[in-house]
Amino acid sequence: MNDQPIIIADDDADDSEYMRTALISVFGQDKQVIQVPNGRELLALAKSPTFRPELIIIDMQMPFISGTDILCKLRDQQHLKQVPLVIMSGDKYNLELAYRAGADGFYSKPTSPEGYLEVAIDIRTQYYR
């Protein structure tokens, strides 16, 4: 694990906060987790070549720009080629769409704080060896 932040892009403030809380619970209080409320803000951050998060979690359905469009734009950024991009969606049928757009992982959005904790544990297992 490194000092780089984990980014959560989700327009649902409750979902974003559940995910942030779960990640901090799993990774520890010192882990920096940055929340952005939409894809536009995420892409604005991503333009900087010094922006090198450890992992980016993206909600599939957000206003202004979809999760798949965000994935494509992030994959075009050379400095982000090695950053795992994970999609979360309330619709499990978005799985294939997410992987075709370049997602490294896909999670169905949990319906409880415990579910978010399970996702955070799985993220640590999958992306931090």
Automatic annotation (TrEMBL):
Positions of post-translational 4-aspartylphosphate modification: 59
Record carries keyword Transport: no
Pfam name, any one: Response_reg
Lineage: superkingdom: Bacteria
Keywords, comma-separated and alphabetical: Phosphoprotein
UniProt keyword Glycoprotein present: no
PANTHER family: RESPONSE REGULATORY DOMAIN-CONTAINING PROTEIN, STRESS RESPONSE REGULATOR PROTEIN 1
Protein name: Response regulatory domain-containing protein
Species: Dyadobacter endophyticus
Lineage: Bacteria, Pseudomonadati, Bacteroidota, Cytophagia, Cytophagales
